[in-house]
Write a structure and sequence with these properties.
Elements (H helix, E strand, L loop, with lengths): L2 E6 L14 E5 L5 E2 L12 E12 L16 E3 H5 L8 E2 L2 H20 L24 E3 L21 E5 L2 E7 L14 E10 L5 E12 L37 E5 L16 H4 L1 H14 L4 E8 H13 L3 E7 L13 E8 L3 E10 H8 L6 H11 L4 E9 L14 E8 L7 H21 L4 E6 L7 H8 L29 E5 L4 E6 L10
Parallel strand pairs: 12-13, 18-19
Antiparallel strand pairs: 1-2, 2-3, 4-9, 4-10, 5-6, 5-7, 8-9, 10-11, 13-15, 14-15, 16-17, 17-18, 19-21, 20-21
Main location: cytoplasm
Function: Acts as a catalytic component of the CCR4-NOT core complex, which in the nucleus seems to be a general transcription factor, and in the cytoplasm the major mRNA deadenylase involved in mRNA turnover.
Family: Belongs to the CCR4/nocturin family.
Amino acid sequence: MLSVLRVHLPSDIPIVGCELSPYVLLRRPDKTVTTDDVPESAPLDGHFLRYKWYRIQSDRKVAVCSVHPSEQATLQCLGCVKAKIPVAKSYHCSPKCFSDAWQHHRVLHDRAASAVNENGNEEEEIFGRFNSTGSGVISASLTGSASSTSLTNGSTPLDPTAVTQRSGGETWFEVGCSKTYTPTTDDIGHVLKFECVVIDAETKLPVGQPNTLLTSRVIPAPSPSPRRLISVGGADMMGQLDSDGRLSSSGTFTVLSYNILSDSYASSELYSYCPSWALSWPYRRQNLLREIVGYRADIVCLQEVQCDHFDEFFAPELDKHGYQALYKRKTNEVYSGNIHTIDGCATFFRRDRFSHVKKYEVEFNKAAQSLTEVPVQTTQKKVALNRLVKDNVALIVVLEAKFTNQGADNPGKRQLLCVANTHVNVQQELKDVKIWQVHTLLKGLEKIAASADIPMLVCGDFNSVPGSAPHSLLAMGKVDPLHPDLLVDPLAILRPHSKLTHQLPLCLLSLPKRNWSWFGTTKKKDGPSN
C-alpha cells in the first residue's frame, strides 16, 4: 500500500511571497521509494495523497521585528502608531535594534508628516540592517499579555468556516489544499502546519495517520539593499529616459550583465554570513526577477543560470515581459552532478527592439583539446587538459536592431549587433587559464568582425579585477610582457607574449568589480583604445 515515509522543508523560515514546496518521500506498493506526487486524478493502487496547509493562530499575539524578521519583537515605536505608519514597520526586537535603526527609521516619520496618504506598496516592505546611532522616539514594550489587534501585523480575520479546530489556546485556519503554499501578509508572525495523508480513492477516507510538520514563524520579505552604482566615462552620452524608464534616443539601447549565483553554489558553507532562508532559491528567484525586470534593459546577459532554472523560470517569466531567450549550458567534462543543475550563460533581448539573426557557441574545452593536439607525450597532454578543461563557455548572439540610428550615413543598411556573454574560470591560481579563455573569445569575435561591419558588445563575469591581465587585454588590446600575471604559465600557452593582442576597439561600459561590459565598433585600430 502507498505510504508516506518522510516530509520536510528545505528552508527553515517561511517568507511572504516565497513558495513553500515540501519534500515528500513515499513508498509505493511495490516497495520502491519515490518523491513523485500521487494526485487524486491519478491514484496508485487505489490510493492518492491529500495535502493541507494551516495557519496556527495563537491567542497570544506575536509581533515580528521589522529589522530582524526572524526575531520576535519586544518594542513598538509609538511615533509610527500615531503617524498611522504600517504597523509592521513599528516593531523592534531590542532597544539596541531600535537605536541602530533610528537614522533610517525616522525617514518614515518624515514621510508621514509631509504626506499623510503616502502608504503605497513601498510601505509594505521593511528595512534591512542599519548601522547608526541616536534615537528620539518613545517606544513601548510588548508583553505576552498584550491584546491590541495591531500586533497581528495587519492580519485580516478569516471566514469562521475556515477554522478547522481549536486546541490549547490555538486556532487552526486552513489556508491551502495543494502540495505547495505561498505565504501571504496575513501569515506574518504565525506558524504554518503542513499535513500529508494517504486517502482511499473509493471511500475518500484517510488511511493511517497524517504526516505533519510545523514551520518557523512567517517573516515579511526584506527590502533589497540599494545598489551602489558606479559611473563610468561616456555614461552621460546614453540618451534621456522617457516616462516609462526607456531611452528616448532611437539609436541607443541599454544592457544589463549580471551573475545571479547558481543555486548549486549558494550554500551555507560558502556564504556562512547569510541566513539560510535568504539563500533559498524560491526567495532569491523572486528578488532576481524583480530586479532584472525593473532595470528595463533592452539586452540582458546573465551568468550562472542553471539549466532547469532557465527552462522552468527565467525563459517563461521574462517572455511575459517581452524578452526572447537564448542559452548555452556549460560542458560537463568536469562537473559530475545532476546534468539539469549545470549552469551556463543566458542572453535575453526585447523582441520589440531586436530580432535574432545568428547564434555561436564557444566551448573552451574544445579549444583546449585543439591546443593540446600537438606531438607531446600522453602524460604531458593529460596534465595540460587537467589544467585547461574547466567547462567554461561563451554565448555569442548576432541581433538586428528594429530601431533606426539617427544620422546614419546609410539609413537602409541593416543594423546588426554582436553580443558576447561569458563566464571565465573562477580559480584565482589559474591566471594563465583566465587570460587564455579571454584571448580565445576575443579571437573568435575578431573573426566575426572581419566578416561583417558589426559592432561588438562583450559582457560577462571575468573573475578578474582592474589591472589584471584579462582586464588589460580587453581594455588596451594587449598585455604588458612584464605583467606579473604572465609569470603563471606552466603550459607555456601564453607565449610568445606578443600574441596576446586583439584589434577590437573596445571601451568599458560598466565596472562592478569583476562583471564587465565592453562595447566597440569593428573599425581596425592602430593602437590601444581609450
